[in-house]
Design a protein that fits this description.
The complex is a heterodimer of chains A (about 280) and B (about 450). Chain A is an all-alpha fold and about 280 residues long. In chain A, about 75% of the residues lie in helices and about 0% in strands. Chain A is built from 14 helices and 2 strands, in the order αββααααααααααααα. In chain A, strands 1-2 form a two-stranded antiparallel ribbon. Chain B has 2 domains: about 5-185 and about 320-370, D-Maltodextrin-Binding Protein, domain 2, CATH 3.40.190.10; about 190-315 and about 405-435, Periplasmic binding protein-like II (D-Maltodextrin-Binding Protein, domain 2, 3-Layer(aba) Sandwich), CATH 3.40.190.10. In chain B, strands 1, 2, 3, 4, 6, 9, 15, 16 and 19 form a 9-stranded mixed β-sheet that branches. In chain B, strands 12-11-13-10-14 form a 5-stranded mixed β-sheet, sandwiched between helices. Chain B has a 3-stranded antiparallel β-sheet with strand order 5-8-7. In chain B, β1, α4 (about 65-75) and β2 form a beta-alpha-beta unit. With about 450 residues, chain B is an alpha/beta fold. The chains are: A mainly alpha (about 280), B alpha/beta (about 450). Chain A: It is a multi-pass membrane protein. Chain A: It comes from Ancylobacter tetraedralis.
Chain lengths: ~280, ~450
């Protein structure tokens, strides 16, 4: 009798322990350190708000957060469009299940290489004397190399879209596949146009997938620092990059304060997404 | 045992090249005496380490963490060196926060100023350093020749010594306790693509030329980047600094505001943080004039792309690194560390570093390990009599070439400032981040 009552707790224990050790504990440590004080070489226990004050009152922080949010919104919108498009094509236009799976695997092939390599390979392509500029100049389309292609916000967004679109494709494809085709037939029988079917039937039913994909993309872009650093040539800032700089300069408490603020912001964004779409209903 | 009267020896070492031979004999005697009177640990016994294998964990910036040195050290001394290369920020971090993770720290002098107070390094007894008297006086008295002025910034001599074996306070003049044994140093300037700039480059301010709009870069390591920025600002007449290496808040503001203005005007193409990035920026033609390190220039040139390490009228920004011993080392490991350092200064490594375009701390021993042609080219600024090879045996310069900037004395004698860490460091870094984020 006692065993049956204990069993669910026992079953939940491993995950609880893992989450406690690798999620709760680090976050608690970061929160604690964010109130510590520091000088140029060490940090010492204290309870000060200067880290938060300096972070929140600095216009740099605001600009950086706005910049990061800007990247997030643009990348989210583009990945959503591209991701939905690809998923829709895979789910509704490819008839055979085998072809669907094969094409879906094709989408994942780039992910067999490292994230950073995929990103860095853009650099020789987009550079001033890169492949793209050379080709365009040889074709006579332009006579000056396009400078905005590399080391710019454009390059950052491009690389991020390239890196993160699959995170949108997968969950959306998954939900689209589970839509009962009878619903679409019914809509058509009731006289709905293709556009109406898309907006009134498919998109509402795909919302959980869109929401999950959005959570992936938003959290990835908000926390990114390496893409911003490499693709902007160090000219652009993101919150992650700001933290990386602070850590590099041994300013752990300042970085921790930043991390806490970022965490709160991301949780709010995710919370907002979950308010709009009830993922649990669909899972 | 009081042979270490630095003034005379310093003057002596400056006249390195010619009087080398006779002085060397004298010094050998002095060193032997030192060995007898000292701990006895200095005189090298490779066999001991072979029987009782010793591993020293060394980490530092990429410049001197070379596998070739570890291999040669193993062959000569039987000491296994485990090398880890990190960037300067990571290095300072590690010295302070992971004191037990290393035995030898290969750090720059400005890092030393920042981290020595953390108490994770122990000062070294110069009596156990065989070639102490031969170390280039830049690192002891601070003066290359008795007439030289000590340059601005964190000059190595100002953080090279502490008052006593347990002290954390830097001494004003040389003492018996050295914080770092200098290993490698150089004078940095701007690198240019002579084929693309299309005009002679003479001053630091030339990087601001509107003709190079969107084709310039400076490095994004705050403590070094700010010095390049200071050289540029002073050259352009934006400001005259009291001490570039220790700016006031107002001076920092003026410098950063000017940088932000320049950045917004689109003068910079990128900011680089690692050696490879600087090489790629230059080799790909993304930039034509930028902050650069000398081996990066060599790397661009080895791809067959012209690149010059341009000497400038205002002088060089110099840097230097050295080996520090971790606090926790004692007994046989400490002896091995001293032996390793003595070996480091004994010539083979010095020659290896000089051949890369850096300078080594003890010139007389390095000279013995180089051919007269190599010595003439790298150190005396003479035209190469034969092809000049890199340590790996690749041709770096063909016969007739002259080193950018000339001889050792011309280059190290024209140092305007040293890489530094300022009293207003925290403020500077905050403003620097603003510049990057702007």
């Amino acid at each position: 009798m006692t065993l049956t009552r204990l069993a669910p707790y026992l079953q939940a224990t491993p995950l609880t322990l893992i989450l406690a050790a690798f999620l709760v504990l680090p976050i608690a440590t970061i929160t604690m350190v964010s109130f510590w004080d520091y000088d140029s070489i060490q940090i010492f226990p204290a309870f000060v708000f200067t880290n938060y004050e300096e972070t929140i009152t600095s216009p740099v922080t605001w600009n950086t957060y706005i910049n990061t949010l800007k990247f997030t919104v643009i990348v989210w919108a583009v990945t959503l469009l591209v991701g939905f498009w690809v998923a829709y094509y895979l789910a509704f236009h490819i008839r055979s299940a085998t072809t669907q799976m094969v094409l879906f695997l094709v989408c994942t092939i780039p992910f067999l290489t490292s994230n950073i390599i995929r990103m860095i390979s853009w650099i020789p392509f987009l550079g001033r004397n890169g492949l793209l500029n050379q080709t365009l100049m040889q074709l006579g389309i332009i006579n000056q190399p396009l400078e905005f292609l590399l080391f710019s916000d454009f390059a950052v967004v491009l690389a991020m879209v390239h890196l993160y679109t699959l995170f949108m494709v997968t969950p959306i494809f998954n939900t689209l596949m589970r839509i009962d085709r009878a619903l679409i037939e019914a809509a058509r029988d009731a006289g709905a146009s293709g556009w109406q079917i898309l907006t009134n039937v498919i998109i509402p039913l795909a919302k959980p997938g869109i929401a999950i994909g959005s959570i992936f993309v938003v959290t990835l872009v908000m926390g990114d620092f390496i893409t911003v650093r490499f693709m902007s040539g160090g000219q652009s800032a993101s919150v992650g990059l700001m933290m990386a700089n602070q850590i590099a300069l041994l300013q752990y408490p300042a970085a921790a304060a930043n991390a806490v603020i970022l965490l709160i912001l991301v949780l709010l964004l995710v919370g907002g997404i979950l308010r709009i779409v009830n993922i649990r209903k669909e899972l | 045992m009081n042979k270490k009267t630095t003034d005379t020896s310093a003057a002596g070492a400056a006249t390195d090249a010619k009087s080398g031979l006779s002085r060397r004999h004298v010094l050998k005697g002095a060193a032997a005496l030192g060995g007898l009177a000292g701990s006895g640990a200095v005189t090298g016994f490779p066999t001991i380490w072979a029987q009782n294998p010793i591993t020293l964990r060394q980490f530092g910036t990429g410049v001197s963490n070379l596998n070739a040195i570890a291999e040669k050290c193993k062959a000569d001394l039987g000491i296994t060196l485990q090398m880890t290369a990190l960037d300067s920020d990571a290095v300072s971090q590690r010295v302070v926060t992971q004191a037990n993770s290393f035995d030898i720290a290969d750090i720059e002098y400005w890092i030393c100023k920042k981290v020595f107070a953390a108490g994770t390094l122990q000062p070294m007894d110069v009596k156990k350093i065989k070639y102490y008297d031969d170390i280039v006086p830049i690192f002891t008295t601070g003066k290359l020749t008795p007439e030289s002025k000590i340059a601005q910034g964190t000059a190595p001599s100002t953080v090279g010594f502490v008052e006593g074996p347990e002290s954390k306070t830097f001494a004003k003049a040389p003492t018996q306790w050295m914080t770092l044994i200098p290993t490698i140093y150089n004078a940095d300037t701007l690198g240019i693509r002579p084929d693309l700039v299309g005009r002679p480059i003479k001053n630091w301010k030339d990087i601001l030329d509107p003709a190079f709009k969107g084709k310039t870069s400076i490095l994004n390591i705050p403590s070094i980047g700010i010095m390049d920025a200071a050289m540029i600002c002073e050259s352009a007449g934006v400001i005259k600094y009291g001490d570039k290496g220790n700016m006031t808040k107002a001076e920092i503001d003026t410098t950063i505001d000017f940088l932000i203005k320049t950045k917004k005007a689109g003068q910079f193409r990128a900011f680089w943080k690692t050696f490879d990035e600087s090489v790629n920026l230059m080799a790909s033609g993304e930039v034509v004039i930028q902050s650069m390190w000398s081996p990066a220039v060599a790397a661009v040139r080895s791809k067959g792309i012209p690149c010059v390490y341009q000497p400038l009228e205002e002088g060089y920004r110099a840097w230097g690194g050295g080996l520090g011993i971790a606090k926790h080392l004692k007994g046989a490991q400490l002896d091995a560390a001293y032996e390793y350092i003595n070996w480091y200064l004994s010539g083979w490594v010095g020659a290896y570093l000089n051949r890369q375009g850096y300078y080594s701390a003890v010139l007389s021993t390095a000279e013995k390990n180089m051919t007269p042609e190599e010595w003439g080219f790298w150190m005396l600024g003479q035209p190469a009599k034969t092809d000049i090879l890199s340590p790996e045996g690749k041709v770096m310069y063909t016969a007739g070439a002259v080193r950018d900037g000339g001889s050792f004395k011309e280059r190290m004698g024209a140092v305007a400032c040293w890489n530094s860490v300022m009293d207003e460091d925290r403020y500077m870094v905050r403003r620097w981040n603003e510049f990057i984020a702007a």
